[in-house]
Every structure is written in structure tokens, then in C-alpha cells.
Amino acid sequence: MRAVGALSSLCGALSASMILAAVLLTCQMIWVRKVNNASTVWQTETVIYLMIGATLLGLPYVQRLRGHVNVDLLPRLLPPPMRKALACLTLGMALVVIGIMLFYSIDLWYVAWSRGWNSDTVWGPPLWIPYLAMPVGFGVYLLQLATDLFAVIFNIEKPFDNEAL
Q1: Which of 37, 49, 53, 161 could form a disulfide with 133 if both were Cys (CB 3.0 to 4.6 A apart)?
Q2: Contacts with 44 (C-beta within 8 Å, 6 or more apart), sequence order
Q3: When comparing pLDDT for 52 and 122, which is higher?
Q4: DSSP structural state of residue 28
Q5: What angle is formed at CA 44 by the lines to CA 41 and CA 49, rounded to 5 degrees?
Q6: If pLDDT is split at 50, 70 and 90, which confidence band does 113 have?
Q7: What is the predicted pLDDT for the residue at 63?
Q8: pTM of the model as a whole
Q9: How far is CA 149 from CA 11, 32, 73, in A?
Q10: H helices of 42-79, where?
Q11: Measuring CA to CA, how many Å separate 165 from each of 65, 77, 156?
Q12: Cα dihedral sign for 100, 111, 8, 11?
């Protein structure tokens, strides 16, 4: 559980770094366009890839902190055994959905890598690089969800506990 938590935290730090890089790159892009009156070739696409990658790599960290949107009225009204069952059901369903997303994202990444796909822009970076954020993000997210389910089943954490870690 600690290893998965550390991996999720690493993803969170990487995600925050990517957001910072995107902000700094946006400032540089504005400077180049408005002050230097020059064109930008790669900056916009890079910022888009960084923000999408940051979102995907941030998923496990947000799950670790229980930061996703949560409507906890029903769990608060339920007795503890039913609360635990609801937590197991929702985590199990999330595992299935994210497992499907992981499967297809691995397939997409592999096709982009094996066929040498590049972006259709002037810059034209290889697409396997930004696509890699999908299987990595979904993979670590899946591990974090499985860890959370394990913790609820074996009473290590309370179901729907927002005070986690």
C-alpha cells in the first residue's frame, strides 16, 4: 500500500511539474508573439500535451487524497456495513471502467509507437510520447483504486473517509 501511495505521489509531483511547465511555456509563447512579433511553432501543441498529460498523471494522486468530486449524502445516511458494501461496489465498478480505459490506451499507445505516428503539425512530434500518459496514468490509477478497495475490505481505512492520508 505504501509503494502504491508513493507511486501516486510521484505521479502527483510529475503532474504539478507539467502544469508549471505549461504555464511557463505559455508565458514564453506570449512574449515571443507580442514582444518579439515572431511566430510560435511548437509551443501551443506542447502546452496542450502537457495539460492533458498532467490531468491523466494526476488521477492516482487525486484518488489517493480522495480529491475527486464526492457526493457523500447517501454514505453518511447508511449504516457502516452498507456503507462498506457501497464503497466496495463503487470501487469495483471504477476498477472495471479504468481497466477498460487502460486496455484501450495501451493499444492506442502501441499502435502510435509501432507505426511511427507523428502529429500533423509543422513541428510533428512522435505521438507515442504524449500518448504514453494515458496507460501510465490509468495504470497507476488502477493500482490506487485496487489499493483503496483492499484497504476498505480489510478495514484498514473507513469507507468514504475524506480524512485519508
Answers
A1: 53
A2: 29
A3: 52
A4: H
A5: 120
A6: very high
A7: 95
A8: 0.91
A9: 20, 49, 20
A10: 43-64, 73-77
A11: 7, 24, 12
A12: negative
